[in-house]
Design goal:
4 strands, 39% helix, two-stranded antiparallel ribbon, alpha+beta
């Protein structure tokens, strides 16, 4: 291999490491999740992850978002939706005379 090929391989390796680290990939050795074990008389539940405070905060945020959506007026094309109007009566027209 020439020096140019070695430098290209090193550059590709470093760029791939940069891409993987910026895309959220984490090494399993760096994981800090905890394993929570809950034993019942019928079953054992293993929970892998961080504490429930983060999960509780996400649930609260989700509930607030749904409440906000429920209380929002519906807008279509920038206009507020009007309640349905009763149908208008059609005007009476006389039939055409028969010849």
């Amino acid at each position: 291999m020439t020096k140019r090929e070695v430098l290209m391989l090193i550059l590709i390796f470093l760029l791939s490491l940069l891409f993987l680290s910026s895309s959220g990939w984490h090494s399993p050795l760096a994981a800090q999740d905890t394993i929570k074990v809950e034993q019942d008389k019928d079953k054992t539940v293993y929970t892998i992850g961080s504490d429930n405070s983060n999960r509780d905060a996400q649930e609260r945020d989700k509930e607030r978002a749904w409440d906000m959506l429920r209380n929002m007026p519906v807008m279509i094309d920038g206009r507020g939706v009007q309640p349905p109007q009763p149908p208008r009566p059609t005007p009476y027209t006389q039939p055409a005379p028969v010849r």
